[in-house]
Amino acid sequence: MSRKLTASETLERALAIVPWIASQGGYASVGEVCRRFDLDVDQLGSCLATVSMVGVYPYTPDELLEAFVEHDHVRVRLPEYFRRPLRLTPTQTFGLIAAGRALLSVPGADTEGPLARALGKLIDMSGAGSAVAIDIDTAPTEILTTIQRAVADHQQIEIEYYSFARDVWSTRTVDPLRVQSLDGNWYLEAHCHTASDLRVFRVDRIRNISILSTTFEPPTELAPLAVFPEGAELPTITLDLTPAGAWVATQYPVEDHRLLEDGTTRVTLAITAGPWLERLLLRLGDDATIVSADPSLVGARADAARRVLHRYLR
Fold first, then answer.
1. Where are the domains of the chain?
2. Pick from 249, 246, 292, 253: nearest CA to 271
């Protein structure tokens, strides 16, 4: 009886088998496939069963990948979607590069492995290497390593954290539950004893960290990490940005993002704190025009400008 492949081994073989058979015209003998990928017939069947569930929305038969054994041959049919070169928008391209570089910043990451090589090809293809400098706020290695150790050992930590929304530093004691990369940034999800609730912290905004002797019991399950609480009704603002201000669409989470015919970028942002919006509008200056805004946000730029002027004249 053949050895049952692990889930990881099954996926790895499947990802290698399908493109190879497709490159052979979608048709290859069972014996040749088994010899080439070091499999027996039962193991090959497991790999093909895995890829038969691959497809794109709406997951109708014509949108699913077909891989099956017919007599003594294996047939593979790729849906039309998989036959076309994948075309990424500039936002998707640079988002992918940013997320990949963030993963490579993890302590112990293989900086010459498959991910690094794939990123290198993507950067060369996009022209980012020679035309655009991408500055990623990756987490300091020492702080990220300390958080990961505290999460694994269920130990409380004390952090000195910068709140970008309120423009203040504060010291908090938290129970670190998990640390995860999302959209090119590292986040710590923890129970904050100051807020008496779950909070999400950007790791690159932690200045100092100390592991405490106190331990805690983590919850058995956590919902998928979300920077903004799901269902939160946040006020929004819609801005028209000149090309010089279009960086907002890629640097901050946006609810809507459109390129208009005149080259203007229109974005809608959910606002968690007024001071953050005020600083953003002052930074953008004439590169941002307010199209619409929640009543609570109207006048944010003027209010901030008056406060800055008042400080200057004192």
1. 7-83, 90-131, 141-215, 236-313
2. 253
